[in-house]
């Protein structure tokens, strides 16, 4: 972990980004590979939503930040089914349900929880073999079974565009994600109601917001470039 930016740098960057955000957009600070000190700086600058993509790293950071009791933790990475229970204990949101198998596992475990975890379905609008997520046809096929996962509160779509697209292609992907959400909502499912669009990262978030993103996940624009 490198402490690349100072506390003042981080709060200045957060302020700068926040000035551009409509009030309807929730800023999630992605703290993967970022130190607990830097995450604390973001908290001091007013951020209350934090995103992590690895369970082990997240738990270590949460322990260091245990005194900050009003953080909402978002899991945004690929979740192995054998870590589903840890994700449910340590996170308020799971953005990355990328298979029916994972949804069923989470649903089974969540039946005992007082509060259903809030979840997004990760979707790939265009083919992107290295990434996890449902293709659009896969998502439609899985929807009836996903709708049976009544212990989960499935209320969003999450997407990560392929790397290196032109602006027009990014815009199309974000718009198609919003249209997919509208189509799902008109489908008459009993539990699933898509109210959140988790899309937009440091390089593309203005386009995601223009297309209707409600949650943006920002890392490097707030904390500096991550070590590889
Ligand atoms: C790392 C990561 C981000 C943040 O990426 P930046 O480009 O640093 O803003 C957002 N979403 C997911 C799923 C990530 O893994």
Question: Explain this structure to me?
Answer:
With 228 residues, the chain is an alpha/beta fold. The chain has a single domain (7-223), classed as TIM Barrel. Helices cover 40% and strands 18% of the residues. The chain contains nine helices and nine strands. It has helices at residues 7-19, 36-44, 55-64, 84-90, 100-110, 136-147, 167-185, 205-210, 220-223; strands at residues 26-30, 49-52, 72-75, 93-97, 118-124, 134-135, 153-158, 196-198, 215-218. Strands 1, 2, 3, 4, 5, 6, 7, 8 and 9 form a nine-stranded parallel sheet that branches. Helix 1 packs across helix 2 (36-44). The protein is globular, with a radius of gyration of 17 Å. It starts with 6 loop residues before the first helix and ends in a 5-residue tail after the last helix. The mean pLDDT is 96. Pyridoxal-5'-phosphate (PLP) is lined by residues 30, 32, 53, 76-77, 160, 201-203, 217-221.
